[in-house]
## 1
Amino acid sequence: MQNNTYIYSAISIAGIFILLLLSFILQPKLINIENIDENLINQKVRIRGRIIQEKNYDNDFSVLTIKDKTASIEVTCNCKNLQGKNAEIIGRITEYGQELQIQADKIIEITN
């Protein structure tokens, strides 16, 4: 009976590691900002564009405006000094003040 407990524990831990690994490997599909709508609220998305505005607040909290060839959207993050840079942003769509925005999980600066 004790051997079964070790086997079940090992399988559970292996499953957790596999899920963790997949969460890092699998990324959301890259979409244009114009395709972001209310149907995507609480969904993860990946966008690329140029950061055209940055508003910094206390504790490194910032609101970025990112623009691609189709539209622009605000992105909230704990970041600074990104204005004028090209970036890829992975995050979750949220609604604030009846406007859609992205809560950034990851921001990758793109150098051309």
## 2
Amino acid sequence: MFAGFPQLSLGGIRCICVMRTVEIDAKGRVVIPKDIREQSGISTPSDLLVIIEEEGRITLQSVEVKLRIAQQVGRRKLRSWNAEGHAEERLALKLARLENSK
């Protein structure tokens, strides 16, 4: 899926290194280049989750992908549910609420 992009591993997590300069127009819009959208699985039109990580740094994540991950976690949890450690359920619930608020 990420052919042609440099890859590195940070603590066992695979990172795709893509650096490209894009412009923000006067209305605050940014165009994500087509090849980056395709490689990251972001389709158009779609909704993106914007996460402010620190000053000058944001992350964009596909809501569809996050919802799919939350659904997979939910299915796994239903098969092996126990009363301990509900971090995945809280994430799934938060994402579902975010999706329903639109």
